[in-house]
Amino acid sequence: MTLYRRELLLIIPLFFACAGENGAGDAERSPSTNSTMDHHSHARPDEAVITHLELDIAVDMAARTIAGTATYRIEDHGKGRIILDTDGLIVEKVMDGKGEALAFTLGDSTFLGRPLEVSIPAGTESFAVQYRTGRNAKALQWLEPHQTADRKHPFLFTQGQAILARSWIPVQDSPGIRFTYAAKVSVPDGLMAVMSGTNPQKPSADGVYSFTQEQRIPAYLIALAVGDLAFKPVDARTGVYAERSVVDNAAWEFADMGRMLEAAENLYGPYRWGRYDLIVLPPSFPFGGMENPCLTFATPTIIAGDRSLTALVAHELAHSWSGNLVTNATWNDFWLNEGFTVYFESRISEALYGADYAGMLQQLGRQDLQGELAKIAAGRHPEDGRLRLDLAGRDPDEGMTDVAYEKGAAFLRLLEARVGRPKFDAFIRDYFDRFAFQSMTTDRFLAHLDEHLLKPNEVEVNVAEWVDGDELPANAPTPVSDRFTKVEEEIARWEEGTAARELSTSEWSTFEWMHFIRHLPDGLTEARMNELDAAFGFTKTGNAEVLAAWLEQCIRNDHDEAFDRLDQFLNTVGRRKFLVPLYTRMLETEKGRLMAQTIYRSARGNYHSVAVHTIDGLLAWKDNQPPVNF
To answer: DSSP class of residue 476?
Structure first.
């Protein structure tokens, strides 16, 4: 972890938390009504703040650079300057609305990047920055043809969360600063560009694409992908982009997208972003999905061939309300994005697939949370077990753990249980309407919760225990699904001597297989591991969730026969959810440590910078390490 410079605290800016308490957020409202401290941005929106961004950029796939001009409409408060965030950008020129040069300076480099301070005359309404990205821009993943599904053309995608947008756009990169944007993007012949806004459905003849996002969003939600893409509609409002060899399978896999959208609207009000489409990215994408408005970015590891992993789509869709519509004001408030989204995802899944399905999803989440809390308690930052984080001086990515997701959702389920589902649903629907297109702090939410849910219903909840406690409170609702009880019965039968092939598994879902593998007994022999693999084909499965769980067991039990598959998996898949447990498990033994270093040496170049940062830290990796004999 990069050390934080204490002196930076003296210049860290305020940023706005948009709009007041009353009514839905509309585009005309002043964007600087409220302010709160953001330790992860240099911006000072109390001095001047972006209201609209116009991008005119060209993507050079061969040189691996993006270059062009960013033009800003701003609200100026007469302080004589505006400060943007940058990280590795080459700033060539800054101009006023008439094209005249403006004075600017770039501050010292820290893990937050470098502040770009522009001198502006009082009353300035717009200015522009001519720039280009550095070769190692952290938000950008440049892929060679062999790293894609079709292996014919290069590919580019961006990842802005949490503070990476500043590495490809000079911008006020705080989740509490919202603005509209438009873009003109030029790409090489034969490639298509898509963004988190209005999108084409066919390639452009001249390689120039235009985009708009008419709703105010924070910088981390500006996203771009460029590749040899095809589009296939799912229904009137939803569709899928993917490489040509992938798009048909993806459209089949995500056939329920329209039903998910309707279920979400029935729960918590209208979808406010126009279309909801999804792009399947190459496997190096570091997350399961990213909730970029209008266009979810998704990993191909959720294409299982049986529609069994589409809960992730429900999760990213739910972000269209929790996260994109009402956004955490700082990364200390991350749980307001993810806790609400996991809760909402579960409700969508329950509406479409039933309570048992949702219950299994919740139980797997609880297992992940308990493991995460144990790891956090034993680590350097036990306070990361809290919902309300304190990430000053740290990369906010370090705080994006299962705590925000699963502990946050458990807190909301407790509130639902205390007041009843009808009242809780009405509260959540009003919350999204009341604070639409605004940013939310934990304190502001808790005050709203007390005034509009707890007091009116005469309910007492130890909120501090949940928000500021390091552990999962004892009154956390226990997820329930009878289907996992039956899985555990089959594990017991196998332990008692029943052959693996004779177990009653024919109707099991992905979730049941994950539970089965996670709860296998300790100390399995090579013969027992081979029996399971012969019966169920775990090592050869194309289901990434099942395979990752199985490979973790193989490392744990030193099952050599699966290690070639482990090597292949870690060299092709960059999803951090899979990388971290597998590398962590390997580090438990000297043999595993050597194996981890060997695999990582070949795989590292296939990972996005987000994953590289995490695994570098896990392995204490340094470039140009000497070879390891294994």
So the answer is: P
3-state secondary structure of 238: strand
Q: Please identify which of the residues 405, 431, 583, 600 carries the catalytic annotation.
A: 405
Find the mean pLDDT for residues 344-363.
Answer: 96
Burial class (CB in 10 A: 0-12, 13-18, 19+), 590: exposed
Phi-psi region of 497 (alpha: psi -120 to 50; beta: other; left: phi over 0): left
Provide the pLDDT confidence category of residue 622 given band limits of 50, 70 and 90: low
Mind listing the domains of the chain with CATH numbers? 1-141+152-220 (2.60.40.1730), 326-467 (1.10.390.10), 482-619 (1.25.40.320)
What is the tens place of the pLDDT at every residue in 405-430? Answer: 999 999 999 999 999 999 999 999 99
Answer for the pair 390, 407: CB distance below 8 angstroms, yes or no.
no
Whether residue 408 contacts residue 472, with contact meaning beta carbons closer than 8 Å, is answered with no
Amino acid at 382: P
Q: Could you identify the residue written with the tokens 């493991």?
A: 371
Report the 10 Å Cβ neighbour count for 497.
Answer: 6
- 316 is annotated as an active-site residue: yes
Q: What does the alpha-carbon distance between residue 161 and residue 426 come to, in Å, rounded to a whole number?
A: 30
- 478 Cβ partners below 8 Å, 6+ apart? 366
Q: Is the pTM of this model over 0.85?
A: yes
HEC secondary structure over 394-443? CCHHHHCCHHHHHHHHHHHHHHHHHHCHHHHHHHHHHHHHHCCCEEECHH
Instruction: Decide: residue 460, CB within 10 A, 0-12 exposed, 13-18 middle, 19+ buried.
Output: exposed
- Alpha carbons 383 and 467: distance in angstroms, whole number: 11
Q: Which residue type does 574 have?
A: G
CA separation for the pair 101, 98 (Å, rounded): 9
Q: How far is CA 398 from CA 81, 259, 332, 351, 363, in A?
A: 32, 35, 11, 33, 24
Cis peptide before 474 (omega within 30 of 0): no
Of the residues 316, 338, 345, 490, which is catalytic?
A: 316
